[in-house]
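Weekly sync, protein design subgroup
Attendees: M.S., D.O., the rotation student, P.L. (late)

Item 1: inverse folding check
M.S. brought a backbone from last month's batch and wanted to see whether the design step gives back something sensible before we order anything. D.O. pointed out we never logged the input encoding, so this time it goes straight into the notes. Structure tokens as presented (362 positions):
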């Protein structure tokens, strides 16, 4: 098979070593004569898989002991509903920082369940996207049940590295697209949630880190399979979980540990992002419209000088083994998603292609 680099925003590429191990174990897992997807989630064998995956994730992110680690259904979007149902009553209010499509989606969904208030939105300054810093004052801290933001917007290529200041209010972060890409201090958050299909594993799985102090905040009407307290009490197995996705996530966690952990992958991610942004910035052909302070290290969005060239760029990229570079329909242009599994050589190959394309069509 010829070398192909998959820049899809999600479901995204998984580490080659993980895919090879999953392939080797697919029909006969650990000598049982069947696949891991065919065994009971309550069997001792799968319980061991689940416990190891949780422990490895705790190690990777240095998750404090007073946080529950939950594995559930519905991906990141499912948590748009789960968060308000678990953290606030219907008469309460929550604050939202909207920096792009995904945080806006969480804000819109939350309006079904409580009084959601949008405090800060992204803006354009001198043609570049920026995100104003958000800090809750004392009066606001008394009003809000939690403050929600999205750490990385895959559509617009915007990443927030300076945490909003929530004070006594639980800070909730959607880290679907940059979890495990850099070191974070979990203790600063009330809840961190992530859809798996970027840096964790296949789509359909949701991972939630929640401070134990918040487990009793849920409504009586919260669906049982979304209820954090219920999930924690039952080891994320109140109902049948997405077992194969959980197994694959565990393989990714182990791969990341064997690769040097989050600190090592953070250095690689910065190197990849620097290489691609340098290619864009040093060119008169390509443009990125995000202020450097808010540029995503996971999703690099760029435009060509003439949209009529987009289809040609994509076609030639495919011929060179560079796939899934088409930008989201909302913003157009191109988008290279360079999650943990993307090797540096993949980004280097992309930049070489971009330079040659600009030379021929500039």
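Designed sequence read out in the meeting:
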């Amino acid at each position: 098979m010829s070398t192909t680099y998959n820049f899809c925003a999600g479901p995204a590429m998984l580490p080659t070593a993980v895919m090879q191990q999953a392939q080797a174990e697919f029909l006969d897992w650990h000598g049982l004569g069947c696949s891991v997807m065919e065994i009971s989630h309550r069997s001792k064998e799968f319980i061991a898989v689940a416990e190891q995956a949780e422990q490895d994730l705790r190690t990777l992110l240095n998750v404090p002991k007073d946080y529950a680690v939950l594995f559930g259904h519905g991906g990141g979007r499912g948590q748009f509903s789960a968060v308000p149902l678990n953290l606030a009553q219907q008469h309460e209010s929550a604050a939202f920082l909207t920096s792009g499509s995904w945080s806006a989606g969480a804000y819109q969904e939350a309006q079904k369940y409580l009084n959601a208030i949008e405090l800060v939105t992204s803006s354009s300054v001198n043609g570049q996207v920026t995100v104003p810093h958000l800090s809750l004052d004392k009066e606001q801290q008394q009003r809000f049940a939690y403050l929600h933001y999205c750490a990385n917007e895959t559509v617009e290529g915007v990443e927030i590295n300076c945490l909003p200041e929530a004070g006594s209010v639980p800070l909730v972060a959607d880290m679907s697209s940059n979890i495990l890409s850099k070191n974070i201090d979990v203790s600063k958050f009330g809840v961190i949630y992530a859809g798996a299909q970027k840096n964790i594993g296949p789509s359909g799985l949701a991972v939630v880190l929640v401070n134990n102090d918040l487990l009793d905040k849920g409504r009586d009407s919260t669906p049982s399979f979304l209820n954090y307290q219920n999930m924690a009490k039952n080891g994320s197995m109140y109902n049948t979980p997405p077992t194969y996705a959980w197994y694959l996530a565990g393989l990714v966690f182990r791969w990341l540990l064997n690769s040097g952990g989050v600190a090592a992958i953070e250095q690689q991610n910065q190197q990849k992002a620097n290489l691609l942004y340098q290619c864009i910035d040093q060119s008169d052909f390509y443009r990125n419209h995000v202020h450097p302070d808010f540029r995503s290290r996971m999703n690099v969005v760029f435009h060509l000088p003439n949209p009529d060239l987009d289809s040609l760029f994509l076609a030639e990229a495919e011929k060179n083994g560079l796939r899934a570079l088409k930008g989201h329909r909302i913003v157009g242009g191109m988008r290279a998603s360079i999650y943990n599994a993307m090797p540096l050589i993949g980004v280097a190959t992309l930049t070489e292609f971009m330079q040659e394309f600009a030379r021929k069509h500039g």
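Discussion: The chain has two domains: 17-258, 261-361. Residues 261-281 form the longest helix (21 residues).
Action: P.L. to compare against the previous round before Friday.
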